[in-house]
Amino acid sequence: MRTAQRAMTVAAAGAALAMALAGCAGQGGTAAAAPETTTPVAAPTAMPTPVWDLSVHRTFTLADGTTAPGCLQVAVEADPKTDDGKGVERIDQARTLLKSHDWQTEPVSLDELSADDRAHKQAQGQTEAEMLTGVLSDHVSTALSDAGLLGKGVSLQGKVGC
To answer: Which of 63, 102, 118, 157 is the residue whose CA sits 20 to 30 A from 5?
Structure first.
């Protein structure tokens, strides 16, 4: 949810900047007249840095047999919009599950991604290690979901690469 809010704030700020620059285009160094009506745009606010409940730094074996480091960070966060009154309890349970599992040895494979997904991620510039870290992130999310700990007041924020 925070990503969507940030994207909307950044998009609004970008639109305001584009309008301002468009108003100055071709003015030959003179100031453009202010439009008759303006809509104030809030400045983007800095998003708080999450407190990471899980940080996994590990080495992945790549398709060619070499190894590369990967890093995943996960924060368990309250989601007041979906809280059913037991969100705090579920957050504690989710954090306990994250810390009790050995994510260093969790088996992950690029075979878990479709060929199309791999091609798309490669086209975006993702390395094999980043893709494998993303698969690990999917495993974390699945483990919490299977335990009934996502939704109902609980959400995750993750970061691939530290």
So the answer is: 118
pTM: 0.70
Helix, strand, or coil (residue 11): helix
pLDDT in tens, 120-158: 999 999 999 999 999 999 999 999 999 999 999 999 999
Q: Where are the domains of the chain?
A: 1-47, 54-160
Task: Say which residue, 159 or 31, is predicted with more confidence.
Answer: 159
Q: Both ends of the chain: CA-CA distance in Å?
A: 21
CB within 8 A of 8, min separation 6: which ones? none
Query: Per-residue pLDDT tens for 46-67?
Result: 667 889 999 999 999 999 999 9
C-alpha 2/C-alpha 50 separation (Å) is 11
69, 72, 136, 127: which is closest to 109 by C-alpha?
136
